[in-house]
Automatic annotation (TrEMBL):
Organism: Trichonephila clavipes
One example GO MF annotation: nucleic acid binding
Source species, domain of life: Eukaryota
One example of a Gene Ontology biological process annotation: DNA integration
Pfam families in UniProt: Integrase_H2C2
Protein name in the entry: RNA-directed DNA polymerase
Amino acid sequence: MNLKDPSGRLARWALRLQEHDFDVKYKTGKKHSDADALSRNPVEEETETSDKFLAVTTSMNLAMEQKKDQDLAKLKLLSNSSKNEEFRFIDGILCRKNFDPDGKLWLPVIPKHLRADILRHFHDAPTAGHLGFAKTYDRIRKRFYWPGMYRNVVRYVMHCRECQRRKSVPQRPPGRLVPIPPAIAPFHRIGIDLLGRFPKSAHGNKWIIVCTDYSTRYAITKALPTAEVDEIAKFLLEEIVLRHGAPRVIITDRGAVFRSRLVSSLVDLCNIDHRFTTAYHPQTNGLTERFNKTLADMLSMYVDVEQKNWDEILPFVTFAYNTAKQETTGFTPFYLLHGREAETTLDTMLPFCPNDFDDNNITKIAARAEESRQLARVHTLRAQDKDRRRYDSKHQMVSYAPGDLVWVYTPVRKVGLSENS
């Protein structure tokens, strides 16, 4: 043996093997499956084209195989009748007339014990490509016949293990829509999310932290140089708690920064109910996720070619969103939060028409602002009910019982940094 300075277990094995005279022959890892069978997961063999079916494709063999099927006896009796024009013996093989203009004029009748082989050949084989029901059925019906073929093909394709594992689900996801009820007051329930990583701006920022109020739809954004825990905690304290008060509920994803000890301590100190979205289901924080898309679209309209000024544009597009009327509520987020509409730069150029600010008028303004919030809540509930009825009309409920076999969706993650944290 040629081993330089062995130690430990290798040294002990070297000493023991030196007692024997042997020749070392290289064997590939595939030939050593018996040595580590307990530590390796079994690998299923690839589906092969059925040799059993290919062996009976000759006229003589197919005729013999038909004789083995007792269910074809009735069809053979029909074929012997002079009045029967549907079935006929051709070269000793029972055939059925093809009433479809496509395909052969006469189709051989396949016995029951060979039908599974045909299904595998026309669906599982590499030349079949694991295609869907329509293409698989079309290939078979043009070549063969047996009673109940349509039902057999449907069942086989639906229960194909590889198709279930690898193909995306074509139908809509099951279940009913469960809308998130609107909050009862401004900043009672908020959603927070991180957006990025963006190209490094001229000010060194790479991330955007977003907060949306579920009552007024009001949005707060801030550009951040990093997505560290201290930046998140600082934003939550200075931009939310110290400006709008402590919210009762905060909804975030399951990112590490939101589950950190610092953020958890701040949340506990303010007695806030911190709720996390479920895995692979961002709709739990749907309002914030929808605003993220709107914000990205707005930024893309004004960012420069080098994409380094996005953090300078961020406050302007956020203001534009907050001062735009929401279709769901019927009001602007700015009005629902402050009880008045925002003055723009154009408004300041126009003549100012002051209102009579007496005690009664101030009371009316406050009452009108609260009435607007309640009306916005009613509008939101109506819109949610409309969306729920439209969604439920196209989706079905599904129920699972203990012991049912189900598939778990595990999406393929791309290598590298994720777009959202």
